[in-house]
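Per reviewer request, we include the raw input and output of the structure prediction for the construct analysed in the revised manuscript.
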Amino acid sequence: MIDPTSSTTRLGPPGAAGVPASAVVPTGRRPVAAAFRALVALAALTGIVLDAIDSDDLGRLFSYFTVQSNIAVAVTFAWAAHRAWTARPALSPRITGAALLYISITGLVFHFVLSNDSSGFSMTSERTPLESVANQLLHTVTPLAAAFDWLVLTAPGGFLLRHAWQWLAYPLLYFPFALLRGALLAPGTEGRYPYPFLDVDLHGYAGILGNAVVFGLAFYVLALALTLLDRIRPHLRSPRNRISSLGSGPLK
């Protein structure tokens, strides 16, 4: 399998010299993509820093899926910005798709579950000004920005069906992490479990197992939806970025 992040591609029969990918697909600095991705990384980092400043329990803060997924976004987008600015090939869709899925989970769960009083798992509370700004950055700005980058600044067709279940490794591992952390903390500790649907004290182990199955299936459906949409969405990049000219011929 060819590494999509590799800067060279071998053409011709075995033993032929490696030909730089730039000889096949013209590459160049992509300043707009680089600047946008740097801003997304900065937004994620700013939200985390603001939350950290206003937090009296950093261990609890960094146990949240929200913070962890935004760390993934900050690292991924900073890396992608560097590659776009230095005219290197784009990151592997396996990596960018994982970051997109995780931050999409963060945004959707927050807006439709944790901020929804009718969901049964709401976490509405009074927030300080710093918390309010951080909340918007981490739950709204970064998910929307990641979706925009995927739809407008990224070529379609990179996500594969096998990626959908591979991306679930982290959300599935987060479940035992949250339970283990809660088991190690004393009963009654504030924020013992990061989210209401993972709170053993409220729902018991059987209840949270059922919640985990429901959320896990929903996350898999979301991963499949992103994969399928990536394969059918139009290519919005400029015609000058195409492999060949606009003249006749099958390769565009």
